[in-house]
Amino acid sequence: MSFTVVIPARYASTRLPGKPLLDIAGKPMVQHVFERACESRASRVVIATDDSRIQVACEAFGAEVVMTSPNHVSGTDRLEEVVRKLGLDADHRVVNVQGDEPLIPPQLINQVADNLERYPDVAIATLCERLHDVEQIFNPNVVKVVFDREGMAHYFSRAPIPWARDHWGDLHKNKGLAPNAGAALKDGVGYFRHIGIYGYRASVLSRFVSWAPAPTELAESLEQLRALYNGARIHVEVAAGTPPAGVDTEADLQRVRTWMTKLADAGRGEA
After folding, report:
1. Cβ atoms within 10 Å, residue 234
2. Can you tell me the distance from the alpha carbon of 110 to that of 165, in angstroms, rounded to the nearest whole number?
3. Confidence band of 172 (pLDDT split at 50, 70, 90)
4. Distance between CA atoms of 206 and 154, rounded to whole angstroms?
5. Which residues is 95 bridged to in the sheet?
6. What is the pLDDT of residues 245-269, one digit of tens each?
7. What is the pTM of this model?
8. How would you classify residue 25: left for phi > 0, otherwise alpha for psi between -120 and 50, otherwise beta?
9. For the chain, how big is the Rg over CA atoms in Å?
10. What is the pLDDT of residues 175-185, one digit of tens each?
């Protein structure tokens, strides 16, 4: 079955204004994302934006663009508008790929779409990766997820979950991590970082935007908790490959530029 990739691309960014159009190896960042998405099995790749500068740049490299309202409060609201404008069927699979992921492996896009196909009772599919660093487990910018043996999500949190009582029980008495905090990683429970790529059934998006923000969503500032709060099942699977980090800061941008330049140089050398 076919699926559609939607790439939200906003011009406004607190840390990197105009981020989708920043140059990486001679192309705007969003073009790299678009090209990676086109390497997946998606039957259609669409860029969603509310800015005419992004529209012009994307159409120049041949992308299909859907203009959306500038008043959306979340990325899911923007995605729902795109699905509505495209007139997609209720069961059509839609994969949301962030516009600041120029190195995203196409197989991860396929993996999310395939999981929606394999689990017909699932509303949303997403990915994760195992954590091996206790500092990341305690980092609130690293979102953790707990799921059952069938891959169904129980909860997403910025907090360290599950809580390793025997190792972290007295952390509130310490200014930093206890000396044996890392021992929890050896107990086999497993700690997983959520990777922010989502696959949706089109019908789920129309329901999602009708739901009020959930109390847990507001507390954690994690939109996916609204779906869990309203009984929508989310399937989580360990990513088939390690996803490179996206571009959030100037340092991230320079890192990706260096990487892409090395790839381009290697390609010219092989020629």
Report:
1. 21
2. 38
3. low
4. 23
5. 5, 199
6. 788 888 889 999 988 887 777 666 6
7. 0.89
8. left
9. 19
10. 556 656 677 77
What dihedral angle (degrees, nearest 10) is formed by the CA atoms of 56, 59, 65, 68?
0
* Residues in the chain, overall count: 271
Secondary structure string (H, E, C) spanning the chain: CCEEEEEECCCCCCCCCCHHHCEECCEEHHHHHHHHHHCCCCCEEEEEECCHHHHHHHHHCCCEEEECCCCCCCHHHHHHHHHHHHCCCCCCEEEECCCCCCCCCHHHHHHHHHHHHHCCCCCEEEEEEECCCHHHHCCCCCCEEEECCCCEEEEEECCCCCCCHHHHCCHHHCCCCCCCHHHHHHHCCCCEEEEEEEEEEHHHHHHHCCCCCCHHHHHHCCCHHHHHHCCCCEEEEECCCCCCCCCCCHHHHHHHHHHHHHHHHHHHHHC
* pLDDT of res. 189: 75
Please, are residues 80 and 94 in contact by the beta-carbon 8 Å criterion?
no
- 250 burial (CB, 10 Å; 0-12 / 13-18 / 19+) is exposed
**Residue recorded with tokens 């970082």:** 193
User: Does domain 3-270 correspond to CATH entry 3.40.50.300?
Assistant: no
Residue type, 131: L
Record the tokens describing residue 31, joined without a space: 């073009």
Break the chain into its structural domains and give their ranges: 3-270
